[in-house]
Design goal:
alpha+beta, 2 domains, 10 helices, 52% helix
């Protein structure tokens, strides 16, 4: 009987093996289909989106959908500060993380960034590397997670991709295989977007250089013409009848002030165009420090912009400047920084509003200048992007160069700049500058 059963047992065993093999093949086929679907979706995003923010959002959304996870984030490295910055976040209670950062040696994300190796964590509470500060900040409880490095092609790591809390079960090695494809596409997408931005800025630099050359030539007749006009007006006013002397003197003074503004502005435009071109190209001329009167610089800014502000019925004010000591500064760079801030503020302020430059001592060796307006304020996404490579401009066609020039000027003085803004209330930029940059050690 035993001999008769052996063939049937062998057939049953063979059938079971075929079933198991088929199930394995089915699972592999499903996995391959998931991988192909992820690759297809990301390749579409790769070619359809040029905005870095759009690319990151699309990549992250795809990652969460293909593995069935609740939340995720993309963190990019800031090599200047050695921090990982939350560039995009999806998930309940996660919005507050956008733009925040932590040192790239901290947490599981920091460990993955530094090692370049992915991590699959089934229970983050058991992992000593888990950075609990993020959960405390958001009130979100992380259970399981996969973190993958984002790497340049044969280059340095640029950030990490985090995926948290699988809806059904736990994140596993199969999910890691899918996310590895996504992380590769994400890094390529980020590189593509950055290269596109660099090409755009390079083209702007070329155009600015050409325009600057032409404008310098075009401005020369303006400068020469105002000098001739100034001499001619002086002669005319000198020969007016005596009865009109008082009115003539007043008119002459106004004309001379306007001529002086045109002359100074023309020279500053020439210098400023060169600075913008250098700024875009990543070039910089060493600052020329000399004793500088802050009240005089602010008054020069106000004098240049007073007509513009008057047309919009905006008041320009200064407070506390006369008590400030003279500082060592590159006066031209400082003028450009303050001019940028005041000039950008005026259109944002309603009629009868104001732009005020306040001065004060931050400490014995540092001064503080605050440019405060009573304008419409800025939404968080614009405020948080200021003074970064991803600066957003609200002006049609703007590329955020103005704020970069301000930041470069402050950096040249080894100072600091911060911004506070509330929509409907106004914006305040605060510059903190040393009395003598030469005494401040270079970081």
């Amino acid at each position: 009987m035993a001999d008769e059963q052996k063939p049937s047992e062998r057939r049953a065993a063979s059938l079971n093996r075929r079933k198991l093999r088929r199930r394995k093949e089915d699972r592999q086929l499903i996995q391959h289909e998931r991988e192909l679907d992820a690759a297809r979706r990301l390749s579409q995003a790769f070619f359809q989106h040029r905005s870095l923010e759009d690319l990151i959002e699309n990549v992250l959304q795809t990652a969460l959908e293909v593995v069935g996870a609740e939340a995720g984030s993309v963190l990019l490295a800031d090599y200047d500060t050695k921090r990982l910055v939350f560039r995009y976040v999806i998930g309940r209670k996660a919005e507050s993380l956008h733009g925040t950062s932590f040192h790239w040696n901290e947490g599981i994300a920091g460990a993955v960034f530094k090692s370049g190796e992915p991590a699959v964590i089934s229970d983050v509470k058991q992992d000593p590397r888990h950075f609990t500060g993020v959960d405390l900040m958001t009130g979100y409880r992380t259970r399981d997670m996969i973190t993958l490095p984002l790497k340049e092609w044969e280059g340095s790591p640029i950030g990490v991709l985090n995926v948290l809390n699988k809806r059904n079960g736990e994140l596993n090695e199969k999910d890691l295989a899918l996310l590895t494809i996504i992380a590769t596409f994400a890094a390529m997408a980020i590189q593509q977007a950055r290269l596109f931005e660099e090409v755009k800025l390079a083209e702007v630099a070329r155009l600015v250089a050409d325009i600057g050359h032409d404008l310098r030539n075009l401005h020369q007749p303006v400068l020469s013409g105002t000098e001739v006009l100034q001499d001619e007006l002086a002669g005319v006013f000198a020969n007016l009848p005596q009865v009109d002397v008082s009115r003539a003197r007043s008119s002459q003074k106004l004309c001379e002030e306007m001529i002086e503004i045109v002359q100074l502005t023309s020279r500053r435009i020439q210098h400023r165009l060169k600075q913008i071109g250098d700024c875009v190209k990543g070039l910089s001329t060493p600052p020329k420090f000399a004793p500088c009167s802050l009240p005089d610089v602010v008054e020069a800014v106000f004098k240049t912009l007073r007509v513009f502000a008057g047309e919009r019925r905006v008041v320009l004010r200064s407070e506390g400047l006369q008590q400030l000591p003279s500082i060592m500064a590159d006066e031209h760079r400082l003028f450009n920084a303050l001019y940028n801030l005041v000039n950008n503020a005026i259109p944002e302020v309603p009629e009868k509003g104001s732009v005020t430059v306040r001065g004060g001592m931050e400490s014995a060796d540092w001064v503080r200048l605050a440019v405060a307006d009573t304008g419409r304020g800025m939404p968080p996404e614009i405020r948080d992007s200021l003074f970064t490579a991803r600066a957003i401009s609200r002006k049609p066609g703007g590329i955020g160069l103005g704020t970069k020039i301000v930041k470069d000027a402050v950096d040249a003085h080894k100072g600091k700049i911060t911004v506070e803004s509330q929509e409907g209330v106004g914006t305040t930029f605060t510059l903190t500058l040393p009395l003598d940059p030469a005494r401040i050690p270079t970081p």
